[in-house]
Amino acid sequence: MRLEDKVAIVTGGGSGYGRAIARRFASEGAHVVVVDIDLDAATAVSREIREEPGEGFAIPVEANVSQNDDVEAAVSVAIDRFGHVDCVVNNAGISHKPQSALKLTDADFEAVFGVNTRSILLFARHAVPHMQKVGRGGSLITVASTGAVRPRPGMAIYNASKGAAVAMSKTLSLEFASDQIRVNTICPVAGETPMLDKYMTGDGQANREMLRKTIPLNRLADPDDIASAALYFASDEAAFVTGVTMEVDGGRCV
Q1: 17 is known as an active-site residue
Q2: Which Pfam families match (predicted)?
Q3: Mean pLDDT within 140-166
Q4: Cα–Cα distance between 165 and 84 in angstroms, integer?
Q5: Distance between CA 117 and CA 231 in Å, rounded?
Q6: Could you tell me the pTM of the whole model?
Q7: Around 134, how many Cα atoms within 13 Å sit in the side-chain half-sphere?
Q8: How many angstroms separate the CA atoms of 148 and 8, rounded?
Q9: Which of 17, 158, 199, 232 is catalytic?
Q10: Where are the domains of the chain?
Q11: What is the pLDDT of residues 62-94, one digit of tens each?
Q12: What CATH architecture applies to the domain 7-248?
């Protein structure tokens, strides 16, 4: 019950890392607002949580996290339903197909930076003033990528968006420290999520084998690996930890 009496918003909570984070948080006593652009997916995860034993509870919210009005509405739902917000996990992310930077488009840039980077600023804009007013402190957690610190070729915009996410999170950690609002970042390596097959071309199994060989611990990330790191950052065990970028990558970035 490390998150007892805490309320968390988890974006991209309908699948992959977000689903694992939402379920882990609820199992530790948190009330979770599962935010996803796919309402059916968010609803399914919320139902899973409600059907599991434990003190946590979950509700689904449909939102495009790159849009200010949607983010404002999602934060308002959390406050109206649960009375406060203690944690925001900015997990929602998109990518583009691997290709030369010379072939990437303005539309690619706008879409990827909107979801991967602008969303962090938007959730801070709407959640932090509430946290400051309530005076309970808080935790903002960014799920970035090893691409931010050890980029692969062919992913110029994606890597840049995750690098910007890390820099923004570090800056926010300094701006909000006096309010006891901590901001930390997780950088996962490629993992077993729907995003892997959606954005990689060619044979899926061959892609996994290629990626696995680049990871010293010899496997891809499991969503529960990322959920464990997020749980630490959200919990009081990390009360003196802010501005940290944690690589959860099996040694990929060493």
Answers
A1: no
A2: adh_short_C2
A3: 96
A4: 25
A5: 22
A6: 0.95
A7: 18
A8: 25
A9: 158
A10: 7-248
A11: 999 999 999 999 999 999 999 999 999 999 999
A12: 3-Layer(aba) Sandwich (3.40)
What distances in angstroms separate CA 18 from CA 129, 157, 194, one per listed residue? 24, 22, 11
Question: Which tens digits make up the pLDDT trace of 189-227?
Answer: 988 887 777 767 777 788 888 889 999 999 999 999 999
Helix/strand/coil (H, E, C) string of the chain? CCCCCCEEEEECCCCHHHHHHHHHHHHCCCEEEEEECCHHHHHHHHHHHHHCCCCCEEEEEECCCCCHHHHHHHHHHHHHHHCCCCEEEECCCCCCCCCCHHHCCHHHHHHHHHHHHHHHHHHHHHHHHHHHHHCCCEEEEEECCHHHCCCCCCCHHHHHHHHHHHHHHHHHHHHCHHHCEEEEEEEECCECCHHHHHHCCCCHHHHHHHHHCCCCCCCCECHHHHHHHHHHHHCHHHCCCCCCEEEECCCCCC
pLDDT at residue number 103 = 97
Burial string for 52-77 (b: 16+ CB within 10 Å, else e) reads eeeebbbbbbbbbbbbeebbbbbbeb
pLDDT at 170: 98
User: What per-residue confidence (pLDDT) applies to 208?
Assistant: 86
Q: Which pLDDT value is given to residue 213?
A: 92
**Residue corresponding to tokens 């979801």:** 115
pLDDT band at 54 (very low <50, low <70, confident <90, very high): low
- Residue in this structure with the two tokens 């070729």, named with its chain if needed: 153
Tokens of 12: 């991209």
Amino acid letter, 198? K
